[in-house]
Specification:
quercetin 7-O-glucosyltransferase activity; binds uridine-5'-diphosphate-xylopyranose; about 15% strand; single chain; about 40% helix
Length: about 450
């Protein structure tokens, strides 16, 4: 019997925090012998550079600029569902008579309609969850009627199996303020209501990082841990493989960042980034700027399109002390010996990257799953501290300065660094050949490569 390689289409939501882990997953599958094709929107295709993975466009109905052109999040997600289903079908059909017909769709958890498309073709379907398993377990409990959405002014902690006691402020914003994120919450709940219909449910995390949760949920849900999806170069002692995900929706300033970092002493730089989606206020930007100056350390700040929110004198006068860029290769920065800590919004990818590279964090969560991730950074993994917000929801300059001191020089800084090193080792073990996440990927690949 002739052997045939499996062919997986990996479908991503067109945001940086989704493209990165899904592209990395596609690369991991390709490295294990599968044919992998990343499907993404027309306007993100050109930002992706991948040698081992095919890249094909599908449409969300807004081919020039995506969700920014849509009248609302609801309208965008609805359009993506109808136009995306049709164009994903066309893509699968395109390969039908080729030497590598598609036999599985791995789809981003924000695009649950891809399950129906895969079923229409009679091929395997797998959902890829881009949040932590702990956050996913909260949605799962709600879907299974085991947890009610918290009341508006709730103060009672939420107690769930395998999770620490969670104050309302530690919950994902989609649960803490359901009305402000109702379109996303609806999609998330749709996904959790059909979890069992998937052939696989992958999560971008490792069993070691969330061991209590994994134990508590064992046998209850079908989650398979395959992460963290961080390019292997950073998790491989040999330093081989990709040094970047291969996708940037903003213009890169990496050479400038690296040559600037090279001029700084070890552990002297604070790296500050709020990921791709969070939008900080001008007041918060001002407090960050003043806190960084007061810290007396060097800083590298990613400002994206928000550069104007930072005080102009900050941008102009701090050339020696700091560098402000629109975007960088975050992994290269975090891996640099000059970096002492990461002031982060705690997006799940940023959190995983800091854990994978052993970098202590100052957590400043903004929305979505970030409050829960921040809680885990401070209390579960103990690899950082969380900036407390004042009554206006701002982390003040004094608070930020204090947090930076605590993780870089304070009494607990050594312990935090020791923990960060410990988690880095555990993550490396999980994704290395024969590690817990690697074995799960091997099993999946084995099933798809037909005899
Ligand atoms: C969002 C959510 O916050 C996240 O928790 C969810 O799981 C996915 O969607 P985002 O806000 O963009 O993502 O944050 P994050 O998950 O941290 O992803 C940002 C990605 O952009 C990271 O992989 C990071 O390495 C990358 N990045 C960020 C850069 O490459 N350069 C930068 O300058 C900043």
């Amino acid at each position: 019997m002739s052997s045939q390689k499996g062919h997986v289409i990996v479908l991503t939501y067109p945001a940086q925090g989704h493209i990165n882990p899904l592209l990395q997953f596609a690369k991991r599958l390709a490295s294990k012998g599968l044919k992998a094709t990343l499907a993404t929107t027309h306007y993100t295709v050109r930002s992706i550079h991948a040698i081992t993975v095919g890249v094909e466009p599908i449409s969300d109905g807004y081919d020039e600029g995506g969700y920014k052109q849509a009248p609302s999040t609801e309208a965008y997600l609805e359009s993506f569902k109808s136009v995306g289903s049709r164009t994903l079908s066309e893509l699968i059909s395109k390969f039908e008579d080729s030497v590598s017909p598609v036999n599985c769709v791995v789809y981003d958890s924000l695009l649950p309609w891809a399950l129906d498309v895969a079923r229409q073709f009679g091929i395997y379907a797998a959902v890829f969850l881009t949040n932590s398993a702990s956050v996913c377990s909260m949605y799962w409990h709600i879907d299974h009627g085991r947890l009610a959405l918290p009341e508006k002014q709730a103060t009672e902690p939420v107690l769930l199996p395998g999770l620490p006691s969670l104050a309302p402020a530690d919950l994902p914003s989609f649960l803490a303020q359901p009305s402000s994120n109702s379109a996303y919450l609806a999609v998330i709940m749709e996904k959790f209501s059909c979890l069992d219909k998937n052939d696989w449910v992958f999560c971008n995390s490792s069993a070691e990082l969330e061991s209590e949760l994994v134990k508590a949920m064992s046998g209850l849900w079908p989650l398979v841990m395959v992460g963290p999806m961080v390019p292997s170069a950073y998790l491989d002692q040999q330093i081989s493989g990709d040094i970047a995900y291969g996708a940037n929706l903003w213009e890169l300033s990496s050479d400038q960042c690296l040559s600037w970092l090279e001029t700084k002493p070890p552990k002297s730089v604070i790296y500050v980034s709020f990921g791709s989606m969070a939008d900080i206020t001008a007041k918060q930007a001002e407090e960050i700027a003043c806190g960084l100056i007061a810290s007396n350390m060097h800083f590298l700040l990613v400002a994206k399109d928000s550069i104007n929110k930072f005080p102009i004198e900050f941008i102009n006068s701090e050339q020696e002390r700091g560098l402000v860029v629109p975007w960088c290769n975050q992994l290269q920065v975090l891996a640099h010996q000059a970096v002492a800590c990461f002031v982060t919004h705690c997006g799940w990818n940023s959190t995983l990257e800091a854990l994978s590279l052993g970098v202590p964090m100052v957590a400043m969560p903004q929305w979505s799953d970030q409050p829960t991730n921040a809680k885990f950074v401070e209390e579960l993994w103990q690899v950082g501290v969380k900036g407390k917000k004042n009554k206006d929801g701002i982390v003040t300059r004094d608070e930020l300065e204090m947090c930076i001191k605590r993780v870089t020089a304070g009494e607990r800084s050594e312990e935090i660094l020791k923990n960060a090193t410990k988690w880095r080792k555990l993550v490396i073990r999980a994704v290395s050949l024969g590690g817990s996440s690697d074995k799960n990927i091997e099993e999946f690949v084995g099933k798809l490569v037909k005899e």
